[in-house]
Amino acid sequence: MIDEHEVAQLLRAATDDVTVPVTPERDLVVAGSSRRRRRRVATSIVAGAAAVAVAAAVPMALSADRPERSVAPAGSPDAAGASCVQPVPSGLLPDWARAGFSDPHPRIPYVTGERGDIVAILFAQPLTAPASTDHTNKVLWVSRVATEGDLRITATLPDGSAPVARVVEGGPGPSIIDLPRTGCWHLELDWGDRSDSLDLAYVAP
Questions:
Q1: Element (H, E) at 190
Q2: 108 and 34 within one domain
Q3: Is residue 49 one of the residues assigned to a domain?
Q4: Residue 193 in contact with residue 200, Cβ under 8 Å?
Q5: Would you say the pTM of this structure is higher than 0.85?
Q6: 98-128 pLDDT, tens digit each
Q7: Residue 159: CB partners within 8 Å, gap ≥ 6?
Q8: Contact status, residue 111 vs residue 139, Cβ threshold 8 Å
């Protein structure tokens, strides 16, 4: 039976012919530097990818916290006072502006004053300058609060030029409002103890 001493001798004899290459010190240094460079590149790539992910995630998070803002198109009944588009879309009239309509839920083109105290209901589109030969520039004015006195209108172009005065006798009601030229007209409205303003577009017939 082979004892432990003989086993050790046999193992030494078996490994005497095995040559283990020795890496020169310079090669070890180069290899170590290469490994460090690879680690730095990998770290930079990971850090860069993380920064991109964070940059992409922040706007998404902010937009998720901030609800979309709904903007009414210019000229819609919800865009009070701003109606310089053609055509003015039809909308459901406010409760206080429905007197005289047979339909309990009338839908018609109209523009609300900036303060919400008056509406201009358009019975003809488009409003034209000069007046069209096939329809009139009929506007029905309805006040939120009944007042006495004429409705006085001062219309100007966006730069404040070409001021024009018009009067609807007896206060807000049916009228024909002709203006001298095309453009987006700003109308200052005064009646009784009330005042408001809105915009109306006039186009060529």
A1: strand 183-191
A2: no
A3: yes
A4: no
A5: no
A6: 999 999 999 999 999 999 999 999 998 999 9
A7: none
A8: no
